[in-house]
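re: that complex we talked abt at group meeting.

here r the seqs, copy pasted straight from the sheet so there may be weird spacing, ignore it
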Amino acid sequence: MTPFARLQEWWGNTGLLARLLWAVAIVFALGAIVHTHLIVRISAQAYMTRHIDEQREVLEALTPLVAEQAIVGDYTAIRQLLAGMVERRADIERFVWRDRGGREIESQSPPPPRRAPNWFAAMTGLTVLEAATPVRLGGVNYGSLHVRHSPLLAIDELWRLVLYQSGVLLAVTLASFAVIAGLMRANLRTLAHLSAAADSVRRGDYHIRIAARGAPEGRDAVEAFNNMAGRIEKLVGALSDNRLVLAEQLHFTEALYDAIPLPLYYKDRDGSYLGVNAAWERFFGIARRNIIGRTLQEIYPHDPETAALHTAKDEELWARPGTQSYEATVTMRDGRRFETMYSKATFTHADGSLAGLIGVIADLTALKEAEIIASTALLDKVSAESASKAKSAFLANMSHEIRTPLTAIIGFSESLLEHGQTLSDRVDAIQTITRSGKHLLGVINDILDLSKIEAGKLEVERISVPLMPLLHDIKALGALRAQEKGVTFRIECEFPLPKEFTGDPLRLKQVLINLVNNAVKFTEAGAVILHLRCDPAAQRLAFAVRDMGIGMTAEQVARLFTPFTQADSSTTRKYGGSGLGLYLSKELTEKMGGSMEVASMPGEGSTFTVIVPTGQLDSSVLVHDALEWQPSKVARRATGGPRVSGRVLLAEDNADNQRLIGLHLRRLGADYVIAHNGEEAVAHAMAEHFDLVLMDMQMPVLDGLDATRRLRAKGYNRPIVALTANAMVEDVRRCEEAGCDAFLTKPIESLRFATTVARYLSAKTVEPALEESALVSTLLHEEPELADLVQNFIARLPSLIEELAAAQAAQDWATLKARAHDLKSVGGGYGFAPVSAEAAKLEFEVVKRDVHGVADHVEKLRALVRRIQRGHGGDTPPRHAA
Amino acid sequence: MLFGTRLVILALLVGLSIAPARADHGAPYHFGVLNQRSVALTAQYWNPILEYVSNKSGVPLALKMGKTAVETTEMTVRGEFAFAYTNHLFTPERVRLGYRVIARGDAAPIRATIIVPQESSLQSLKELDGKMVAFPSREAFVGYWVPMDALLKANVKVKPSFAGNQEGAMGQLQAGIVAAAAVNAQVLENYARREGFTYRALWTSDGYHGLPVIANPTVPVEKVEAVRKALIGMSADPEGQRVLRAGAELLKLKKPVGFLRAGDEDYANYRRFYQTTLVKAEHK
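got the structure back, here u go
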């Protein structure tokens, strides 16, 4: 510790009285030193001055006396004179008279005893003082007189003065000490009382007061303290009340903040958090003690972008104080994301300066989700309403679709019962009834599939599917429709392709035929192409059906797979259909584990792609070019319509069905025996040889299932194909379980019936492939015996066309309408639906009086006639091997 | 009287046997001045004059005098001075010492006067009878011999108080120690002017030339002549005039007092007075 530090410490521990006494002592000492020094110096100076003056005066006084004695030569008198002076003047140490001849007369006093110490003598600065003066009278120098002053007397005198003054000063100092100590003790007692009282106040005793004594300043201090204590007592009382109120208010405010269910926070001007509420803590998962005094960046160390967003927003608010709202996505540290709305407002100090901001965070996540749900619900509702409307429209449509063919069926059926009907009329009626019945069957099948899907009962098979027969079936059906429409249908294969794959052949065919039919339906000219491609690695088989039709907009595509709707309501009116086909196709595809995609542009046609799983593909089953295809007899039959030989047992209790199925069997070339119930069937089967048993499931005596089981139980191993109106998968499974080899639904679809039956019977002939460009009467497939009628119709066609052309040239609208109507009416009846359709269009153009439209359609009819003629080999109808 | 005679004889013997005015070769000639003023004032006045004369005459002169007029006269009588400025050597017995007058001050004749202070009640010499009268010295011619002679001849007996010199006597009068003072009227006038002293004269004598410069008969004639020439020539010499003016200012004289050529004949009235005076007879 340095001396100065020790001095500071000592001074710090020294009491006020001691400090005062020390101060007085030091001041007195310094004053004494300075005073003494000044006195000594001044006195010494005065002594010097006085001695010099005295010397001068002595010399001046003595010089004439000595001069006179010198003039008269009385040296004795001079010696006496000098001795007398030395004797009288104790301060004069020595006198010397030195005449001009060098003779000296000296008079000297003994040195006085010295009392003052040497240092004091040195301090005075007094020294021996010598002076001399020449003694001259009238220009004659008689000699010189020398005088020497000793400082000793002066020093001793000063020393005595200093001692005296020091004594006085010491006495004064001691007296001052006594007086100051006495006075200070009395007043320090007041200070001690003040200190004790202040300590009491510090401990909370605000009632303490002090009696005023001592000096006025002390009394003033005591009075000031008492006043202060009184004021403190009042203030503390008031403060205590205020604190209670304030604490209550603070608690209320905090409770209010915490009661607010929304996260709330408030920050100062520097962006440091001043406080948050409980909801904030819960929301961010941060305790308020961990965020108060910190900044926004510390909430979002993991999300600097969000931190930057809020910081920028805060800066905007600082720049324009007021309120602010914005939505922001908040990402928590655990990765949870919340959709929030920040509402902020600035607040100010009492002086109006900007103090900070308060913010409320509204968690919109649930709201957003609810909004999405509501939106979805709204969409669902709209969809439901739309669906409802669609269903209503569907029902109306179905009603129309069902009622129309039914009306036709009933009407034409009744007309057949009438007498006097010509053969042509009867054929026309029968064709109409058949067509209407098929249409009705399609509608009902669709409805049944829809109901299955909606009931969740639609199931698909996973069996081995030979690709080639599937394609032949599709080709046959597609080509047929395409011919009717006058467009081309072809299948393009992108090898390699599997010979077989695992899937549901019926459903896949249903889907593809539906797509092909659709494509044909919406294609007015050009081609419909089924493009086939396989991805063995992905085990996917893609069927792309491309048309050159009207195409669709994106909105139309979006609605495409909604049940009961079509691309446009006008589509239904224009093209017909239940609006279920695509929906069912997509559902079926997805049921098969596949997917359906559509690509379409308005005016450029559409492409529907069905991708289905193939199951495990062995390289051995892949076909790498068309030559590897081995056309099967089934395929051949399918191409031109099967012709088989064999004996069939038809177990059917219903007479109409017996006739209808019998007809189909006869067309196929098969013989058949009818059993009216299950028992008969078992008996016949066990008794005779049949290549195939067609077993109706619902029969009296013994139903088809039991009969099949019984046959299988009896070791019957010939093919049994189930016939049932119950087209559910469960029914199929039950049939299979019972021992059926295949499954046919009623009403009988002739092609499917033929294909299925042909699998189990021996083939007779192979039909030549039809030219795609030729148009063949469909009636001939169904009713070959009506070939003559068809041929006659074909023979009349050129003259009809010419008649139309002449009427068109003459703008004979009546003839045009009459002939167009005739063609429309009979074209379809002879198996030439495109002729009817085109005639209907012509009739429409005639009604519109559209000359160009009429000419166009007359030419189209002329083209159709050429195709018919080509399809029928001029006037020669096709012949089937018996 | 016998003592005085012996002194004169002794002085003559000493003066004849040795050269008392000049102790040895190279030493200055002593110039004695009768104590009319204090020794110091005398020296202040005479030293410049003597230095001038020494320089002019080539005769080194040095002032020498006794403490009192008596002492100085005795020293003169003893022949201690080569030159002297005194009129105490005209008594019959001192005339025989051989001193001769060579010059005198260029001043009006001196007169003896008996004065009282202006406020004194004394109106005549008669009233001085029995009173103390201050005299410069017993040897003072106009300060004692002449006035005492007049008092004696007027049959007035006073108690003499010898103040030592002229101004001493006037000082006693001014201090009230004496009732009257007998002094040189010229000295009195200068003193009164200088000191502001007012007085009233009860009696004043006839005029006598002021003190002469006399030469010791032992001093060579050429030296004496040189000195006399220098003294007389002072008033005509600028330097001498300056010295004289300074002396006049020192003594507060109205005008500088130079020196005129004089001889023993100019002081014959002195000798006659001494021959007839009652004082002399009384003191002897």
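couple things i noticed - The CA atoms of residues 16 and 166 of chain B lie 32 Å apart. Chain B is about 45% helix and 20% strand.
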